């Protein structure tokens, strides 16, 4: 009995952790509700009607190579194309405040030149009648798979905590600008999108530790 109680005390003497939550998409099971919109300006919020879809699911060629599927966007007109996040990326995302957003991207065509669009990688989130956006790929598009990560916080998006909390409490859409090149020429891929909540360590209170120690000493005296 003493051994069991000692194990019990040890278990509850360890720091308590909130387990990190995760939203992720690697397209291994298909498109999963992902889509696209076209806008007339790079950071626009008003979708345009279009008859040709730039979106396809590539079965091979992701960051892991053969057999690694990814989402591919092919430029079809002179408007700006945006990836629209799919299943699991809406609703209450408050738990992810101050978390880490990460994704892989590549420009597969053209593979050379310098006719870049500076707003490539502009990330926009909608919710609660508000919107916030930030350019998360500050450099020119890479022709090799590249991982981009950023802090998912009000400060990083340049909005107040009030606005940010309003957005996160009821997210209605997330867009990523995948228009990387001037002219109707580019092909862009994205993969391994993830949003990880910040992990907070919560040690037990001092009074709880003192109580458990007293119990341990009592049982030790009683059974030894």
How would you characterize this protein structure?
The termini are close together. α1 runs antiparallel to α4. The chain has two domains: 1-18 and 203-224; 20-199, Sandwich (Jelly Rolls). It is built from four helices and 13 strands. The radius of gyration is 24 Å and the shape is globular. It has helices spanning 2-13, 154-157, 161-169, 206-223, and strands at 16-17, 22-25, 35-39, 55-58, 70-74, 80-84, 99-109, 122-127, 130-135, 146-152, 171-177, 187-196, 201-202. β8 (122-127) and β9 form a beta hairpin.
Question: Keywords for this structure?
Answer:
4 helices, six-stranded antiparallel beta sheet, 224 residues, single chain, 13 strands, 2 domains, Jelly Rolls, globular, alpha+beta
Derived from helix and strand composition plus strand pairing, the structural class reads: alpha+beta
Q: How many β strands by DSSP? A: 13
Q: How many distinct folded domains?
A: 2
The topology string of helices and strands comes to: HEEEEEEEEEEHHEEEH
Query: What is the percent of helical residues?
Result: 10-25%
Number of H- or I-type helical stretches: 4
End-to-end span in angstroms?
11 Å
* Fraction in beta strands: 25-35%
Identify the overall geometry: globular
CATH topology of the largest domain: Jelly Rolls
CATH class annotation of the largest domain: Mainly Beta
> Please, what is the average pLDDT?
86
